[in-house]
Sequence to fold (480 residues):
Amino acid sequence: MVQGLRSAGLSLPGSNQEQPPVLALVSFNSQECHTVLIAAIFLSATVVPIDPSLEPEDMKNLLEIIGPTFVYTETGKTLRKVETALALLGSNPTIIVSGRQKHPYVSYQSLLLPTDPEFRPKPKREGKDASTPLILFTSGISGPPKAVQITDEYLIYNCCVNCDTSCAGSVILATSPIFWISGIVTFFASIVQGKKRVFLRGPARESVIFETIQNYKVSVWFTSPNSLLSSMARIQTGMYNLSSLKMVVSGGSPLSPEVQLRAQRELFRNRLHIFQVYGLTELGILASSFPGSNKLGSVGKARDGILCKVVNLANGESVQPYVEGELCFKGHFFMKGYLNGCCTNTEYDKGDWFHTGDIGYVDDDGYIFVIDRLEDLITYNFIQITPSELEGVLLNHPAVKDVAVFGVPNHHTEDDWAIACVVTKFPVTENQLVDYVAERVPDDKHLRGGIKFVEFIPRTSTGKVRRNLLRSQLRIELQI
Fold:
């Protein structure tokens, strides 16, 4: 890989340009993709990983924001999507392609040429023209994806500082793709720490993931709540030898205490504790829980150099411990900003606190608990209901495989009624599930909108529930 990195870096189109080139990296995980990623950064280029599963129209919108000078991709369906997206955009960047199928573009293999052994990476730029080695797009779950500019300092802090998992072994499995911040952080952190990194090309069945843990003797597994839920539905205790596994880390969305305890029991026989990390694309890793620093349901404490506060949703004032509000953070190693004014930096207040849009609280010991997204709150009878609370209750029912809770308008008042879309393991009635929830939560939090049985819960590529899509589909169906 070192030889490939050197030769690809020296031979990459744009290596002699005055302005740093912009590389759109439209690919699933692969050694070739990772080689090009590092090689481009060696050239002080800006790399923009893009989800290859996007439809051409959505891909075109992202390419339009970044204006790539060249694109790296793979033969097959992904290349055809890139061609369609560029045609829609009317753009003609240099295209680099890996794979065995014939194509008229620059071949990845053609870049693997003998190079000068004295080759050194270009020095990073500083000051107002500081290097932007990466641009990552947000999930787009609450609006158009935002192009987040990542600096060298951001990468160094997140990949080198407080990111040591040496106590847990030397083989890391990260199921995150390279276009997620978790995929980027685990990729570079494994290099910095000298760890072996096992990766999967793309989304994989639970059986493949557990076979990988068993066969490659994985010691640290970075995963998500959605993956843990899917695994519990399909993997039986004792099916695989997981003795090498020392640490499981969950991130991407809140992991409820109910799901955490179930996963520890059903997947790992209570031999392991599942730890959580919390972060945003804009800010990097904000908090993490590790051995000796964890509480059930908590994402841990704010990392060194990062301040956290919780503010009242109505007046923006700081609240006391254990009081829920919006989580806000301040630090020196956050994003450079959003690219091309794709949106304004309204998330920052006058005190330079970044408002995350996440609801949570902090306890007396400084442990952070993330509850839900502000935009997902359901208001009924002046009470704010968090979908994750009701989802956690339903997931404890033996018939429930997956669930998403959201609010629907009530014709008689200005309130919303909570409704649950449920995927079942075996037959169960709506009344049984509604009553099950009613027995476990206060009256204001009952599922007055009822239950809708569905075949699957739509999620983004990052595993987050697409509640807006479910809500829109239901409104069309019910004509509300």
Observations:
- The domain at 380-478 is CATH 3.30.300.30 (GMP Synthetase; Chain A, domain 3).
- The chain has three domains: 2-123, 152-374, 380-478.
